[in-house]
Amino acid sequence: MSPLDLLVSVLVVAAMGSVGLDIDARRLESVRATRRLLPAIFLVNYVGVPLVALAAAASLPVDAQVREGVLLCALAPGGASATLIAARMRADAAVAAAVVIATTATSVVLTPLLVAAVLGGGDASTMFAVAGRAGLTALAYQALPLALGVLVRRLHPGAATRLLPWTSRIANAALGVLVVGLLATRSAELLAVGVAGLTLALIVTLAGLGLGVLAAPRAPESTRMALGVTTAIRSLSLALVIAAHHFPEPGTTQGILVYGLLMYLATLGLAQWRLRGP
Fold this sequence. Notes:
This protein is mainly α. The chain has twelve helices and no strands. The longest helix is centred in the middle third of the chain and has 36 residues, at about 155-190.
């Protein structure tokens, strides 16, 4: 396991565990209410964001490999760090966790189908196998800590209250190290992709935020913000795994990492702005 994989694993486990430790009866009810929103959630994640990405990519003079990388991100929902960022911006982290698990589970099938249709990439059966392994691993890292946190909260509320600050600190620290590390090691690539590449990544990120919020216009604000964040934060892990097997050009990986940097900077910036609000 590479240092990046280890860091992401710690982030996901700590973030999902924190959500589970904090789920009370009210939050559980909001998660149950999210079930009726699933058609809209899937629509914006698997149709809305990809269509915006394709339209923007067609209208901007973006390098072909960078374009592939950003489009892979647009086709791969389920970024688990959305739960942590949702909590930072006072959104409903429990709803965010439920959406992340739902999109991760469906991405095992839908993302390879979309990638094969939009980008090609060779043998579809191999792509399904690659996405399936990555998706099942991601689900384990997401669902098990979440379920364990819920169980501890139900059986030992006092212990959950004591553990929650520590798991939150670990998750926030891991996210901070991840973003700073990406900036330190990949900041030159932000400039290398050019204005068009940066614009494409930013358009896709902002489209995710906007479409996610619009997916549930009558829902509480905390739910709408959670949907916005979970739609903007894509699964870099899934995009990188597919790229490694089917789109191995360096520029494709560059496009994925540039998108990752911009999605974190945009969503964390929004979180900070909301924290300063009333």
